[in-house]
Amino acid sequence: MDKDAGQKRAVQYLYPPLTPFDQRMLDVGDGHLVYVEQCGNPNGMPVIVFHGGPGGGCSPAMRRYFDPKYYRIVLFDQRGCGRSKPHASIENNTTWHLIKDIEKIRVELEIDKWMVFGGSWGATLGLVYSQSHPSNVIHLILRGVFLGTQSELDWFYGGGAGQFWPEAWARFVNLIPEEERTDMIAAYGRRLFSGDQSIETRYARAWAGWENALASIDSSGVAWESPAEYARAFSRLENHYFQNKVFLDSNSAILANVDQLKDIPGTIVQGRYDMICPPVSARKLSDAWPLCKLRYVQKAGHALSEPGISAELVKTMDGLRQKGS
Q1: Same domain, yes or no, for 232 and 260?
Q2: 143 and 65 in contact (C-beta within 8 Å)?
Q3: Same structural domain for residues 232 and 255?
Q4: Is 274 a catalytic residue?
Q5: Residue of 51, 97, 139, 302 marked catalytic
Q6: Which of 120, 219, 281, 310 is catalytic?
Q7: 212: closest CA among 276, 157, 159?
Q8: What is the reported pLDDT for 325?
Q9: Active-site residue among 84, 226, 274, 310?
Q10: What is the rounded distance in angstroms from the CA atom of residue 30 to the CA atom of residue 199?
Q11: What is the pLDDT of residues 172-186, one digit of tens each?
């Protein structure tokens, strides 16, 4: 399904478009400049939004899940993507660099505590940040949980999801020689970092296309073609993180450290038919996290723009506003 079509269908659930009252490039060190914006109420409840990928970048639509009269909405492009510089760079770009950047943003904006809102990779980053700085988090709102485990990567890049979408999987796999297909992440990595921009762009579009094809429950299995600049940043960064097991200390690091969330309330919004981040991860997390509420959206997949996902997220944020938490 066309990317914009999904967003148009969800518009009825969202707040009107917002214009940022603050936009800046923040020097976070290590040769990186990170784009940061704020919109909504400058004196409102702070909420920071973590985009997906890694490498996806934030978009204007991400501002629209929050009542602008109540929330002070903070968005940023993580290192190497969106408007952050240098573009598509993996140098000094790890989960722990991003955690450091988030804290720098919080201090720069003079925010004491905030809500954390993130989906897919943004959920991973939200969990790791909240476990690293639990005293700074008021509430954690997650969508499409990804715990950064090998089994999740094997599901999506080892043929699990391909059993449901064999035609899309064939397009993804057939670009790689048969002898390299036992490790698709590494095989694509060799091409995404080949040094030849035309090759990198071709494989970046194929990598992004495989994910986009499975994002929506209404998908036909044929992805919209990403712009070259976006695809290259998205695919290189995602591949870099996945080759490095998202830079966590162990395969089960998030669940092993779930006790760090014991005083943080959480809400998970999970599409029942999420092919990219299957619901089992959300269930494992909610079972281990007593203050978490898991809300399934029955006729939804992975995408933030799915009408059911959008409606549930707006409902969640409105509910938190009414509770004043």
Answers
A1: no
A2: no
A3: no
A4: yes
A5: 302
A6: 120
A7: 276
A8: 56
A9: 274
A10: 28
A11: 999 999 999 999 999
